[in-house]
Amino acid sequence: MPVTARRLPRTLAFHKPYDVLPCFTDPDGRDTLRQYIDVPDVYPAGRLDRDSEGLLLLTSDGALAHHITDPRHLLDKVYLVQVERVPDAAALERLETGVMLGERRTRPARARLLREPPHLPERPVPIRFRKHVPTAWLELTLREGMNRQVRRMTAAVGHPTLRLVRIAIGPITLGDLSPGQWRELNKQEVADMVRSA
């Protein structure tokens, strides 16, 4: 019997656009990863909700996927978050020390108010505009991934999220990828990600 060559694992960094589901099929016909990625046997390592944007890692390496998603590995995930109103020092401290979400308190995080809005591509659907309600941008770094965690955290401190863009997972950054673009990680980048946990 001929010996078939074993495929080497592949890992991709993808800039998930707004309104795209983080999966390859949808019975309702909504946009999925299939519209952007034609690489066999890669699957998302973690989630990025339909209404969120930014860095999504996909891999064919099950051990690496587990490494990325398991909160015990404490891999930093960095988000740019546009929120309603300008958070004060007390709100930022609550985000950093932990917020009760249901029965569970979030792990300590890093929260920084940005002086200027970040340079990001325009979103196809603009955020809702309210004339008398200012907005602000935060950089929020988490080491866990509860369901819709960033949105729930900012809402809990009185600043609902309007736009959410993930810009880094461990040492892998979104960089200059445009929405809908992907690139393959090299061996060194994968090794750096494993080592950074």
Structural features, described:
The chain is an alpha+beta fold. The chain folds into two domains: 78 residues, 2-Layer Sandwich (Alpha-Beta Plaits); 95 residues, Alpha-L RNA-binding motif (Alpha-Beta Plaits). The protein contains four helices and eleven strands, in the order E-E-E-H-E-H-E-E-E-E-H-E-E-E-H. The strands form two sheets. Strands 1, 2, 3, 4, 7, 8, 9, 10 and 11 form a nine-stranded mixed beta sheet that branches. Strands 5-6 form a two-stranded antiparallel ribbon. A hairpin with a 2-residue loop joins strand 5 and strand 6. The radius of gyration is 18 Å and the shape is globular.
What structural class results from the helix and strand content?
alpha+beta
How many DSSP helices?
4
The CATH architecture of the largest domain would be 2-Layer Sandwich
Approximate helicity band: 10-25%
The shape, in one word, is globular
Strand content: 25-35%
CATH superfamily of the largest domain: Alpha-L RNA-binding motif
Q: What is the residue-mean pLDDT, rounded to a whole number? A: 92
Number of strands: 11
N-to-C CA distance? 42 Å
What is the CATH topology of the largest domain? Alpha-Beta Plaits
Written as H for each helix and E for each strand, in order along the chain, the element string is: EEEHEHEEEEHEEEH
Domains (count): 2
